[in-house]
Sequence to fold (317 residues):
Amino acid sequence: MTVIRASAAVPAQPSPARPPGGPSAAGTAALHREVNAWFSVAARDLPWRRPEAGAWGVMVSEFMLQQTPVARVLPVYAQWLARWPRPADLAAEPPGEAVRAWGRLGYPRRALRLHAAAAAITERHGGEVPDDHEALLALPGVGEYTAAAVASFAHGRRHAVLDTNVRRVFARVVTGEQYPPTATTAAERRLAARLLPADEATAATWAAATMELGALVCTARSPECGRCPVADRCAWRLAGFPAHDGPPRRGQSYAGTDRQVRGKLLAVLRDTDGPVERAALEAVWDEPVQRERALDGLVADGLVEPVAQGVYRLPMS
DNA sequence: TATGCGTGGCA
DNA sequence: TTGCCAAGCAT
Fold:
């Protein structure tokens, strides 16, 4: 009896070989062309995309856009750049001023980190935002995504920019799933690297274009495939839009959490010019144990500075 | 790797 | 009304 080996039953590998599920080299090139062409006519005119924004403007926008919608960032961004047009301008002021100017964007530790990043840029890079991915990554508040985004958008460098929009677009168009995994996987990074155009300028446009496609068309809740430049090759659509089958995507609760208490406490500090008495802080939350824990957390994070017994302020140093 | 960290709009 | 979602980072 003859045993047919599996390898004998399959046709010769196409050249070059590729992982299963992804487009061919020709398909990838078409993908680049179609998405980038769409971007050239559909891209929003956002202030940080204009030439006058510069690398600092791009960096400020990236900090503000971490987990925060564009519409809420726009006014704060404009005020920020008008007040602090260069990193050294921000670094020259107390960190508390950054926290105050951050307003209600949320996650105010980002303001602190942006201030610290401005100081590091001023000290270590002569006041110029670095164009090198590694140097960017070493800055406070700059992770893998932000480093790649600044290098790509501000300096035209070739990097895979893998944010939540891009991950969703790739999950649908290439992998055929409604949503990407909860946390970024090695497989996603490999895919992003493989899809990255070889040419630097094309890669930079591709990074912005795939993000924009996810933000405007291939949205989380209601994708508009009729407006999608690659709908005809989308694996998820071709598979009949199979629903997400993994564990439910847990949204973070907010009401009653320490996070909410921290927000209320910091709002008092932000909206007060100068030091604040304990009594003013105690007024925003009745439960004393949680209130104290939240306040201690803010102090530990450097968002609040005790100045005397029972007196607090935004950080001066 | 899972969790904590703000805020507000929308379905 | 409640839950989901919005260009993540640090630990």
About this structure: Residues 1-18 of chain A have pLDDT under 50 and may be disordered. The CA atoms of residues 71 and 264 of chain A lie 22 Å apart. The first helix of chain A runs from residue 6 to 9. Residues 61-73, 107, 109-110, 113, 140-146, 149, 161, 163-166, 211, 214-215, 219-221, 249, 251-253 of chain A lie near DNA strand C (CB under 10 Å from a C1').
